[in-house]
Every structure is written in C-alpha cells, then in structure tokens.
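Deliverable D2.4 — example input (structure tokens):
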C-alpha cells in the first residue's frame, strides 16, 4: 500500500503510510501525519509544541472477509498563538466527509476485485509478451 492509495482508496490526505500488520483475521494499516501538515484546530496557527500522541484505531471498509483498521497516532499539540492544547481533528473530519461512501459499502457490499484481477492479467500478459 502506498500513500497514494490512502488518498484514492480511503480519501485520507496529509498522512503517510507506515506499515501493514495482519493478525487474527484483521488488517491494520498504520499511518502517520505528513511533516509540516500540523496546524492548530482552533486558530489555524502553525506555531505548535508537540504534547505526546494517543494511538487510535478507526474501522474502515473490509477487504474480502477481513476487517480493516487504520491505526493513527493522534498528535496532541499546544498552540503558541492561542495557548490551547488539543488533539488534531483533521483525520476525524476526513473520515466524516467520506462517511456516506464508506457506510454505503455495508448496504451494497460489491467490489471491483474481479475487474481488477482481469485488468492485472491483461497487463501481465502484455508485459510478458514484450508488447506483441
Ligand atoms: Zn491556536
């Protein structure tokens, strides 16, 4: 998985992919905020002091029969402009903006998997035939 897939697959912007962990029938994608993307959720100021993280798990659309979670260390920051200490809300707002599409998957559990397999086979055949 790549940072590009975070955006195109899950609609997550401003975060980098770290690793994938598979255990107990679950897939966990770990992500982290992109550097320089942090700002105060109240005044929008960029002059921040880091005050630790809280790891949160967000359940998202399953892959096949496996539950998928996105693990994110939510950064706590102290704004030096307004002196507020807050958790960043950007990720929660991103999920909220895509909630309709994500929840639609539970009503209509269709997948483009078979189509992707066919496209992958066609591209593999083209590559193995060296363009013929
Ligand atoms: Zn502020």
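Example output (designed residues):
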């Amino acid at each position: 998985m790549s940072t590009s897939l975070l955006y195109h697959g899950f609609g997550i912007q401003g975060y980098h992919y770290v690793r994938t962990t598979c255990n107990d029938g679950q897939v966990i994608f770990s992500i982290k905020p992109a550097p320089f993307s942090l700002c105060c959720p109240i005044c929008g100021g960029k002059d921040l002091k880091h005050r630790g993280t809280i790891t949160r798990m967000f359940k998202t659309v399953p892959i096949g029969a496996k539950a998928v979670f996105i693990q994110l260390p939510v950064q706590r920051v102290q704004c030096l402009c307004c002196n507020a200490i807050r958790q960043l809300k950007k990720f929660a707002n991103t999920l909220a903006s895509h909630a309709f599409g994500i929840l639609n998957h539970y009503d209509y559990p269709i997948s483009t998997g078979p189509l992707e397999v066919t496209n992958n086979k066609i591209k593999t055949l083209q590559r193995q035939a060296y363009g013929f």
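Residues 51 and 76 are 5 Å apart (CA to CA).
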